[in-house]
């Protein structure tokens, strides 16, 4: 633990990359998935609220808070699809953990990389309960920044080893093949979505356009398929034709948020959905038969980020991969903050 009260461990992008590689990508995803499952099983303990979002024509900026009563966590995250045209990331993020008893932060970390990992881990956790048994082939529609993480998580947790890739920009698919080379995948770049869907038992849709799109149409979806819908994550941004939703058993993270942001924003407010945590906790059934179409309407929820933050905190305590950040005022007398300021002025060197 950090001995000084004013020091907060900070995990930079560099340290996060070193941490993931030190642990190993697949092991990191497996352990992160275990952390997420553990917290989903105690779902009822958490504060839950839809994320606080500030929307503009260019994108969205969001805060995602939660607490289990002992630890508080939040993530700041944006979504700006136009950013790639300027050489910037579509999604960036950072997160904080704090001790509920004192209010003091105990971790500050980058979450751009960590969000990609936790999104993929959550997708694979859902698929453990919803995908066809012994599935080996996944189509990934949209081969941008999230695609490789999804592939690695599904391989690590479910044994997926055949990928059918499609993106409107073929260079994104070739990038994906290049990055995943040597990781045990049989990969095919497809010219159409229909081609990508051929033989797929799971399909992940993970596109970035901020609009109501129709990535999958009803005629593309056969019985027994598991759909991992990741790209739709804000009002007015969807990927699936509504007819697909009406044929599917739909599983969500937190219904009040998903009904605003997910694929089910296209449906009536009382359309039946199942909460994923209930399936993981054994209270409800996930996949019930081979012909069932299951849909994980994933928008991302704060408890998943909380799980990821707690996992990283445990890892850095073992590895030391962090910096010490002088973030908090720590006067000798807690009531004398102004005196601390004056003493700093006396101690500061004078200009020549």
Automatic annotation (TrEMBL):
The keyword RNA-binding does not apply. SUPFAM superfamilies: NAD(P)-binding Rossmann-fold domains. Pfam families: OCD_Mu_crystall. Its EC number is 4.3.1.12. GO terms for molecular function: ornithine cyclodeaminase activity. Keywords: Lyase. The keyword Lyase applies. InterPro entries: NAD(P)-bd_dom_sf, ODC_Mu_crystall, ODC_N. Belongs to the ornithine cyclodeaminase/mu-crystallin family. NCBIfam families: PRK07589.1 (NF005762). This is Ornithine cyclodeaminase.
């Amino acid at each position: 633990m950090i001995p000084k009260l004013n020091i907060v461990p900070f995990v930079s992008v560099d340290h996060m990359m070193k941490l993931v590689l030190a642990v190993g990508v697949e092991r990191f995803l497996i352990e992160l998935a275990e952390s997420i499952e553990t917290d989903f099983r105690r779902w009822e303990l958490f504060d839950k609220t839809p994320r606080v979002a500030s929307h503009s024509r260019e994108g969205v900026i969001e805060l995602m808070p939660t607490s289990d009563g002992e630890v508080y966590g939040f993530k700041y995250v944006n979504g700006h699809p136009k950013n790639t045209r300027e050489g910037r990331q579509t999604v960036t993020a950072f997160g904080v953990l704090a001790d509920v008893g004192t209010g003091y932060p105990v971790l500050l970390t980058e979450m751009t990389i960590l969000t990609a990992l936790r999104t993929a881990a959550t997708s694979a956790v859902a698929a453990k309960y919803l995908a066809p048994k012994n599935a080996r082939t996944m189509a990934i529609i949209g081969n941008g920044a999230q695609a490789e993480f999804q592939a690695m998580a599904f391989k690590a947790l479910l044994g997926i080893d055949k990928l059918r890739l499609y993106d409107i920009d073929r260079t994104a698919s070739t990038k994906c093949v290049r990055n995943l080379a040597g990781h045990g995948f049989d990969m095919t770049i497809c010219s159409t979505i229909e081609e990508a869907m051929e033989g797929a038992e799971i399909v992940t849709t993970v596109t970035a356009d901020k609009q109501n799109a129709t990535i999958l149409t009803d005629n593309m979806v056969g019985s027994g398929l598991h759909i991992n819908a990741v790209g739709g994550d804000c009002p007015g941004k969807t990927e699936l034709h509504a007819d697909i939703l009406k044929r599917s058993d739909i599983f969500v993270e937190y219904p009040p948020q998903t009904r605003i942001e997910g694929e089910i924003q296209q449906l009536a407010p009382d359309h039946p959905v199942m909460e994923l945590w209930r399936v993981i906790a054994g209270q409800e059934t996930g996949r019930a038969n081979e012909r069932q179409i299951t849909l994980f309407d994933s928008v991302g929820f704060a408890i998943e980020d909380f799980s990821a933050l707690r996992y990283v905190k445990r890892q850095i305590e073992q590895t030391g991969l962090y910096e010490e950040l002088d973030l908090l005022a720590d006067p000798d007398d807690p009531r004398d903050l102004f005196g601390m300021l004056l003493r700093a002025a006396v101690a500061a060197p004078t200009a020549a």
